[in-house]
Amino acid sequence: MNDELLKNKTVSHYKILEKLGEGGMGEVYLAEDTKLDRKVALKFLPKEFTRDKEAKERFEREAKAAATLNHPNIITIHEINEHEDQIYIAMEYVEGKTLKEIISGVGAGLAPARATARVAPTINEIINIFIQICEGLQKAHEAGMVHRDIKPQNIIINKDGQVKILDFGLAKLKGQSKLTKAGTTVGTAAYMSPEQAMGKEVDQRTDIWSLGVVLYEMLTGQLPFKGDYEQAIVYSIINEEPEPVTGLKTGVPFEFERVINNALAKKQNERYQRISELLVDLKVLGKKVESGQTIATSSKEKRKPSIAVLSFTDMSPQKDQEYFCEGMAEELINALTKVARLQVASRTSAFQFKDKGCDISEIGKKLNVQSVLEGSIRKAGNKLRITAQLVNVSDGYHIWSEKYDRDLEDIFAIQDEISLMIVENLKIKLLEKEKTKLLRRYTENQEAYDLYLKGRYFWNRRYEGGLQKAIEYFKQTLKKDPSHAPSYSGIADSLSILGLFWLPPKEVFPKARSAAQKAIEIDEMLAEGYTSLGWILFMYDWDWSGAEREFKRAIELDNHYAINHSWYALFLSWMGRFEEATLHSNRALELEPVSVILNSNSIAVHYFKREYDDAIKQGLKAVEMDPNFLRSYWYLSFGYNGKGMWKEMIAALEKALILSDDSPFFLGYIGYAYAMSGQKFKAHKILSRLNEISKTKYNSPHNDALIFLGLDEKDKIFEYLEKAYNERSFMIPSLKFAPLYDSIRTDPRYLELLKKLE
Questions:
Q1: Which helix (H) or strand (E) segment is 131 a member of?
Q2: pLDDT per residue as tens digits for the range 214-229
Q3: CA distance 531 to 528
Q4: Which residues, other chains included, contact 515 with Cβ-Cβ below 8 Å and sequence gap of 6+?
Q5: What is the CA radius of gyration of the chain?
Q6: Please, what's the b/e burial string for 611-620 (b: 16 or more CB within 10 A of its CB; e: otherwise)?
Q7: Contact (Cβ atoms closer than 8 angstroms) between residue 459 and residue 493
Q8: Over 90: is that where the pLDDT of 573 sits?
Q9: Nearest 5°: phi and psi at 15?
Q10: Residue 385, strand partner residues
């Protein structure tokens, strides 16, 4: 559109004042709204939008949808209209600078107090900017809209530091064109996700990718994927990995690297699945930066050394040392996490590659570590042969390797030597306290150690028989070494899980409490002991302040103990403190992202927050991770319950029933689902079946209460809930906030029951 023709021209009731800019999507002018006496921005779109009827209709639909997005971080669209066969949009005029200008060093800082030229934004300011962008995108995604063109030019910051996202409703139409089409700009190509660059269907994860690119650029001043021409950029996006931000810019917290890696995962299912996940991580990071908890890169230190310890390979003749191989690796992981200057991949993250035949470079890339320890164990009688190799991920060469032919009683010395050699070869200088922690062990008795490893092996499997075996091995450990504190914690945890699903709570929880207290008595610095006690105070004693005290004490002692964060998140959910619950649930998954146990627990956090779609997505992810982990199906059924998807809920619970060998606990839930789906005859059959089962094994009254809840038999519901309360069923405290009980919340008997829990 000719500038001279528009100068001082009136379009409808808008008086053109000046041209603000132009690009592939049209020209933008500053105008005065003569009706409402305000400044607006008018965007005139290319004439091809008007000539193509289908394109015009599609654009108008999307513009109308965008106009409904009422959010402080999204530009407000006032109207869409036509002038001389050209479509224009009248939108809110924001006086400020785009991120592009800020990244380029043009214009003012972000806040009025920093409004001097060429002042680079601080880490805190960058986090605040991206939190606002995420909040705006979250609003759009909830409305079913995907921006598709997130880039620095489309994000503006006003003089008060408020972020505004531009061009909602425009990018989708633009995104229909292929990269090879004339007129597509290189700048836009640089922010495209792999699926978008390949012309595939896109969803909200494309916006997450683009936002990751912008965040990378904001932190480093350069793009993660570059090229001299468009197709070169596309090749880089699809095939290459960006240089780590901590290697390009000093002062950037290491945690930013994980956030960016999650946003820039090339496979959609490995990326952040929802903008809310990125938003939570940014808020957590912001709090850490404010409190000084993050470790930033310095001019002398590009990146913290990092390592993954793989499960050792069993080379024994009988192939019966899996527990020993896993235990050896787990002990090394636990020891190395005591070194502050070393990042260590979690047990579940490292063990996911067991028996997969992956090469070291692939493992290093997926776990974002620089080195990998692998090895093998051959155990025959009292003789051990252990090999260990520390491998550099970047080139595949050995940094260090060693072979040990020793007696079994030398296992502790071997572990110490391997740990010290790893630290030495990664050129980490140990503080004296760190060395003490690194070499610390809880027993000098080799037989006790071997039995403890067997107990841990079965505890990690989390099924009824496995938990019983774990308890037996922990008890045998204590016979060999009565002062082995971790075994007491292991007994407490195993008993408490059995008391949730398989055994009478009053029978096992007091024993579990005694074991947890004994663990703390022996070692007051053992985080696992406080976690065990906190869980029991929460699930059985219903001592809310006491439970929180123990969970927090465990965090003080070991902020890397993922189970504690996960259990604390469940506690916070049941207390209705949902934002805190999300933070700790995400912290647990940050520490052990591929733990099916922790991923399953996070489903419950979504459910209590009434985020049913997220609960279902998380549930399906957990099921995919391990199709034989029964609790994933139980938690998944919660999401289906919230959505009233009874067929899917029943299918999930049927799988849980098979895996649990027809546990009464899961029979109660499937009976509820039958009743809610109108299959009352089947629900009554489950009631009869539970009555028969009660003659030979424990059946919590809560199981019957659930079925009566589905049948809407109020008197029976409260009769059995009262019995469940008296038997200390762990589900009783969930009555406070669990959506499952919405239908009885107005009943006076429900309120009376809640009073008892205060």
A1: helix 123-142
A2: 999 988 888 998 887 7
A3: 5
A4: 488, 489, 491, 492, 495, 532
A5: 30
A6: bbebbbbbbe
A7: yes
A8: yes
A9: -100, 115
A10: 378, 405
For residues 581 and 577, what is the distance between their CA atoms, to the nearest angstrom? 6
65 or 345, higher pLDDT: 345
Domains of the chain: 1-93 (3.30.200.20), 96-303 (1.10.510.10), 306-441 (3.40.50.10070)
* C-beta atoms surrounding 270 within 10 Å: 12
Collapsing DSSP to helix, strand or coil, 175 comes out as coil
What is residue 15's three-state secondary structure?
strand
Integer Cα distance of 684 and 693 in angstroms: 14
Task: Supply 381's token pair.
Answer: 């009688």
Q: Residue 19's beta-bridge partner residues?
A: 29
Q: What is the pLDDT of residue 360?
A: 81
Reduce the DSSP state of residue 406 to 3 states and report it: strand
Six-digit token pair at 42?
Answer: 């008018």
Handedness of CA 670, 676, 677, 683 (dihedral sign): positive
Phi, psi angles (nearest 5°) of residue 600: -65, -45
- Calpha distance 512→534 (Å, rounded): 11
What's the rounded Cα separation, in Å, for the pair 657 and 650?
10
- At which residue do the structure tokens 């003789």 appear? 383
Bridge partner list, 86: 83
Q: Which of 527, 523, 494 is nearest to 511 (CA)?
A: 494
| Phi, psi of 8, rounded to the nearest 5 degrees | 60, 20
DSSP type of residue 694:
T
| Nearest alpha-carbon partner for 173 in 45, 274, 27, 268 | 45
More confident residue, 433 or 237: 237
- Using alpha carbons only, give the angle 260, 263, 267 rounded to the nearest 5 degrees: 130
Residue 603 has pLDDT above 60, yes or no: yes
Which is nearest to 598 in space by CA: 561, 628, 627? 561
Cα–Cα distances (Å) from 533 to 334, 527, 544, 734, in that order, read 21, 10, 12, 19
- Residue type for position 700: S
What span, in angstroms and rounded, lies between the C-alpha atoms of 127 and 210?
A: 16
Q: Kindly give the pairing relationship between strand 398-407 and strand 86-92.
A: unpaired
Structure tokens at 8: 């001082």
Tell me the backbone φ, ψ of residue 197, rounded to 5 degrees: -65, -30
Strand 96-98's sheet: what is its strand order? Answer: 96-98, 155-158, 163-165
Measured between its terminal Cα atoms, the distance across the chain in Å is 70
Q: Which regions of 337-409 does DSSP assign to beta strands (E)?
A: 343-344, 371-380, 383-392, 398-407
Instruction: Return the structure tokens found at 206.
Output: 């494309």
Residue 744: strand, helix, or coil: helix
pLDDT tens for 689-747 read 999 988 888 899 999 999 999 999 999 999 999 999 999 998 898 888 899 999 999 99
Residue reference for tokens 């024994």? 316
- Spell out the residues 6+ positions from residue 707 whose beta carbon is closer than 8 angstroms to its own: 668, 671, 672, 675, 683, 686, 687, 690
| pLDDT surpassing 50 at residue 411 | yes
Alpha-carbon 37 to chain mean position:
47
Closest CA to 591 of 275, 280, 347, 303: 347
Q: Please return the burial class of 39, using the count of CB atoms within 10 Å of its CB with bins 0-12, 13-18 and 19+.
A: middle
Helix (H, G, I), strand (E, B) or coil at 191: coil
638 closest CA partner among 621, 618, 657 = 618
Mean predicted lDDT score pLDDT of the chain = 83
- List, for residues 433-466, the tens digit of each pLDDT value: 556 655 566 777 878 888 888 888 887 777 788 8
